[in-house]
């Protein structure tokens, strides 16, 4: 990966030049290390927009490869603020459109901005788990995906992704700057768009939230090999 010193230099460059250099660097790494295989691109034709793309999360390279797979839609990625605070991972944020949210908090300001983007016609890409899975399979989704989907009413497109955990593995000590690219086959499977499930009369608030969250997460699981489905088998 790009060294911390190089990343800091890129980040102090004028925006347009910094973005240009960042894109060149990311393209170079992906072309060298990633063999990207995309299935289901036909499901993007004629979809209703704005839409919410949802995907499992295995690596800091997920956004980079998904950005290429969805370049015609060009969605805004919902990213945790800590990625912006790290000199190296912020290089990736120079390449893709993002809006920040504070994980593990009731970030009303971040949520409001996300809702506004959708209402303005912007499609989103969200990693419902809220963090990269350290077990290599689906972990429980955070409440945010339920709130965003319910409040916007936008249709949803599920994506199953794997191989990125080998492309850019999570550093065991938690140092994102120390993560390095490796040669890997990456698989992206795009599912069919579907509508967020409506609440039944007999369902109370908690029951509905649990049902709806599990429903949409299983849509991701269906696109993954069984060993990646985790808690949503």
From TrEMBL:
One of its GO terms (molecular function) is 1-acylglycerol-3-phosphate O-acyltransferase activity. InterPro entries: Plipid/glycerol_acylTrfase (IPR002123). Keywords: Acyltransferase, Transferase. This is Acyl-phosphate glycerol 3-phosphate acyltransferase. Transmembrane segments: none annotated. The keyword ATP-binding does not apply. GO terms for biological process: phosphatidic acid biosynthetic process. It comes from Geosporobacter ferrireducens. The keyword Secreted does not apply. Residues 51-164 form the Phospholipid/glycerol acyltransferase domain.
